[in-house]
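Regression test case RT-17, inverse folding.

Input:
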């Protein structure tokens, strides 16, 4: 089983990109939530670990997880409202966000008991590692499960508007790296965080994957592999959920499989790029189902 831990929220997505005062459509979202849904749709055994509101949005979020086949047994519940993220989508489909997160349910996540022994991977990232007091609980979960030998993926997916102290967050990010197996981040994240691939690898991760949007992605490994794949051409509606789909595809393909040769990384990255392209072709975070991919099962044995 792969456990994804982090926030579940509602994206309010413009029906007409670029229209600042146009109608907004509510969409199920949150980076970790999207990753969990993508895992379920890709056919992985997945569970979601978070704190979700008991309001109507919270019920809809849980319904979305169940529809994707994601286990919700690790979800905590609370009466506080669901976090809202208002998306601004540019002409190129790229999305920026404004957040309404004060006093919301996912911020009050508490460290759960030790995860089941059958868990082979844990993924974390995005707002959940910024907003206290939940951020400290998610950090403790990362450290504890990494110490048990669980494969861990970290996607910072930085939202600068939510970070109260940029330098403190950058230092905290570096403190997580010894507990991370796979670090995945975008070019924008990398530029904002500072440092570089070799510095990050030296701090602990087995591999670093850098995504470049339409230009594709590259992986560097501690064993010296460097592999790149191009992006796939697609008519982009928006990019919401694309990076989360990459997380899911990579986890499904490589989590817990040990050091991989260049050929295996190439196949895994191509699989992730294809899944992400299909996500970009739909409005809102709509990861593809396995049956819609050229390769319905992960290409890495």
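Golden output:
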């Amino acid at each position: 089983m792969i456990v994804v831990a982090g926030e579940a929220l509602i994206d309010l997505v413009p029906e007409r990109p670029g229209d600042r005062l146009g109608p907004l459509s509510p969409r199920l979202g949150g980076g970790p939530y999207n990753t969990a849904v993508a895992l379920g749709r890709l056919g992985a055994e997945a569970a979601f670990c978070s704190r979700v509101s008991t309001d109507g949005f919270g019920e809809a979020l849980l319904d979305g997880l169940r529809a994707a086949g994601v286990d919700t047994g690790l979800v905590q519940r609370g009466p506080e409202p669901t976090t809202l993220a208002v998306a601004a989508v540019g002409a190129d489909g790229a999305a920026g966000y404004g957040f309404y997160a004060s006093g919301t349910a996912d911020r009050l996540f508490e460290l759960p008991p030790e995860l089941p022994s059958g868990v082979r991977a844990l993924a974390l990232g995005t707002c959940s590692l910024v907003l206290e007091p939940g951020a400290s609980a998610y950090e403790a979960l990362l450290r504890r499960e990494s110490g048990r030998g669980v494969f861990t993926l970290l996607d910072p997916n930085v939202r600068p508007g939510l970070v109260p102290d940029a330098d403190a967050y950058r230092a905290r990010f570096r403190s997580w790296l010894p507990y991370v197996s796979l670090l995945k981040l975008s070019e924008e994240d990398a530029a904002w965080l500072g440092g570089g691939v070799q510095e990050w690898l030296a701090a602990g991760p087995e591999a670093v994957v850098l995504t470049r949007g339409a230009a594709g992605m590259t992986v560097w490994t501690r064993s010296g592999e460097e592999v790149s794949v191009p992006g796939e051409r697609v008519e982009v509606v928006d990019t919401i959920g694309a990076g989360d789909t990459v997380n899911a595809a990579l986890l499904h393909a490589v989590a817990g499989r040990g050091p991989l040769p260049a050929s295996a990384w190439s196949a895994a990255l191509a699989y992730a790029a294809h899944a992400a392209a299909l996500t970009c072709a739909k409005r809102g975070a709509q990861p593809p189902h396995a049956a819609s991919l050229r390769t319905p099962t992960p290409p890495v044995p």
